[in-house]
Specification:
The structure is a homotrimer of 205-residue chains.
Chain A (H helix, E strand, L loop, with lengths): L1 H22 L4 H23 L10 H21 L3 H25 L4 H22 L13 H16 L4 H21 L16
Chain lengths: 205, 205, 205
């Protein structure tokens, strides 16, 4: 089940990455690169950080085809996609939760400390977007936007907490997706965001 | 043979990286860092992605000296280099093919899937340039320029295809270098490029 | 002893990273990410390059808490910190030397070549700052600033040289910190910097 959600999520993330590349007038190769990094970059950074070799996608050519295909199809259907705005926000939120839960599971399977498990979940959830923004030469949006990374954090904490309590996998997943989607949709609807740290002092370091 | 071409290629790439650093008024340390990343960064990213430890250059101090030396010499001979424009375009094209073929070979030796072998070749070919551009705080040129990354892709496909057909290593290499150089030179001469994806819709994700 | 200096250093680096994030108006999550990358990013890059798994901080939750705590506390005490300008320059210089020495030790323990040991020291010393600047979408300051990276290089060379001569660990450390602090303070006081490479030729590669 989680695997199908994951495949849908990486395809949606790849399409969102392709649109970001299109905003920078990249060529179709650049679109493919950014789509790939947006969708699979978070999991790649996680695998490298945790020493979880071989890196996940290298063992699943299907993921690679989904992501490259999603990116390239976006070029053709970009006109239509702007009418699917709402749908993509939901798919993106589902993807954020799925990535977070999978990232936690990978670190749990390697017996890392709880704090590292949390960081593994968040890294999987948000690093694809960070790599996308680096490639587009802009500041990572996830570091100053509406609740996004913090949704990943809350989901990861809930997930670990319920597993620790011995709640079954299915109930835990249902709770994680429900809370994550609810929070993310509320953040978008009411423009909820974390407090911002403004510091205007001239740089001295 | 390929090893000598490789050493010439990393030196040329280091010199091109040093010029990019000079355009940003970096100090000589910055020049060395950018020269290193431009020349050896692609192979480093490949080794880390594939779990191919120890990373190649850590076992070959000669490569490190070539690259740092090439970068620093560039500071002295920069004036002369502008007259060698044509030569450097050819060296860069040779380097692109050499990096691609070597990247494919590394993944083949580790029994990765064909699609991962292709990606390993392209990553080795283009990621040095991506890291150079990230250090210079500009959008990676390889994602929207004249045919460059796509030359790497075509070379990698030809190379795998001929090896699969059982053609000898030497003939295959000759074909890869011929096609790659021809394509790249044609791209430069006639400003060939891939179609660009333009998407101006305000961002919503 | 070195371990306590290290913990003080990562906390100070995290605080400096947090200020950089504040200059970009990041939210508190972004502050935590940039603080973490500034303080522990250099060691992470080193561990990944050298294949030194598990990555250091994944085994030391205390480091993670110090760094995240330091980053978040900075938000509260930012006003006060501007009066501690001088103190932070000293802490940063101590951190640079500590990171360099520790980076050398890690590579020595894995039997890498001397040139790789030097690079491991410098990478540990400067890559946190490079990652911080990438996240803030600006050119890495360390590549064109006052003597900073070069202090790391000089310290690493001295350290290896004295170990090679058979000088005791304590004397060697004392010498490394003395020389490093002296050089760095002199660089700040008299605005010493490396020669800059200026190259204005239009890009042709």
């Amino acid at each position: 089940m989680l695997i199908y959600i994951y495949m849908m999520a990486i395809t949606a993330e790849a399409m969102s990455g392709a649109l970001a590349a299109g905003r920078r007038n990249m060529d179709i190769f650049g679109v493919a690169v950014v789509a790939f990094l947006t969708a699979l970059g978070g999991g790649t950074v996680r695998d490298i950080l945790l020493g979880n070799y071989p890196v996940n996608w290298t063992q699943h050519p299907l993921y690679i085809y989904l992501v490259l295909g999603g990116g390239l199809v976006t070029i053709i259907i970009a006109r239509v996609m702007r009418h699917l705005h709402q749908l993509f926000l939901v798919l993106d939120a589902i993807g954020l939760v799925a990535f977070t839960v999978i990232g936690c599971n990978v670190a749990l399977g390697l017996d890392y400390e709880p704090i590292v498990v949390l960081m593994s979940g968040i890294t999987t959830g948000i690093f694809g977007g960070i790599l996308r923004d680096l490639m587009c030469n802009r500041m990572p949006q996830v570091l100053r936007h509406e609740l996004y990374a913090s949704v990943s954090l809350v989901v990861a904490i809930l997930y670990l907490f319920m597993l620790d309590l011995g709640v079954g996998e299915n109930v835990t997943l249902l709770a994680a997706f429900s809370l994550g989607l609810l929070l993310r949709m509320a953040a978008i609807r009411w423009h909820l965001s974390l407090p911002v740290f403004r510091y205007s002092q001239e740089q001295w370091d």
